Amino acid sequence: MARKTQISKDIILEAAFQMLVREGYASINIKALAKEIGCSTQPIAWHFGNMEGLKTELLDYCVRFLGKIFCGIKSEHVAEQLEDIAYGYITLAFDYPNLYRYFYMSDVDGRKMNELTTHLRADNYEKAIGMLQKEYDVSAEAASQHMMDLQMYVHGIASYVVTHGGFSAKEEAMEMIHRANLAFLEQLK
């Protein structure tokens, strides 16, 4: 008797993730995913119950992936730290545009993805705000406002990359962010 091939939960999640990255969130359904894996729909139903169960676990899988992109601040200088954070967004927009759309340009389960990913960057933001306060001798409110200004600028560029292209390379986008960051920091002095 031939042994049945086991399709693990991890194989299914990775296939769903690859579909999301390649084709976007709307492309994921049980039949398309089963075809992607080369199996029947039964293993998907067995592991996840239904599509909602799969999509809930896929969200967690994607958040873990996002954590690898936002892997932390590497620099001791506050201006560079802020750009380390920005680089995560730009990397996502350039290298994984459908994933950027999924996290920052859509609703999932009626919740904004931004709320779900806040914890990934919270420690970095708090550290950067503290360093801004110390280095520029400003209030927490002023430091937070700087972070908000830079965040809006970075998300604007990242959203533009995802929807219109317009940049030939990450370096071009990061150079614009670098100049804006320095200008925003100059306003703190």
Structure report:
The protein has 189 residues and is mostly helical. It has helices at residues 9-23, 30-37, 42-48, 51-69, 78-95, 97-104, 113-136, 140-164, 170-188; strands spanning 107-108, 111-112. Strand 1 and strand 2 form a beta hairpin. Helix 5 (78-95) crosses helix 6. The protein is elongated, with a radius of gyration of 20 Å. The model has no long low-confidence stretch (mean pLDDT 85).
**Total number of beta strands:** 2
Q: Kindly give the count of domains.
A: 2
Over all CA atoms, what is the radius of gyration? 20 Å
What is the beta-strand fraction?
A: under 5%
SS-based structural class? mainly alpha
Chain-averaged pLDDT? 85
Strand order of the largest sheet: 1-2
Oligomer: single chain
In helices, the fraction of residues equals over 70%
The helix-strand sequence is HHHHHHEEHHH
Low-confidence sequence ranges: none
The separation of the N and C termini measures: 76 Å
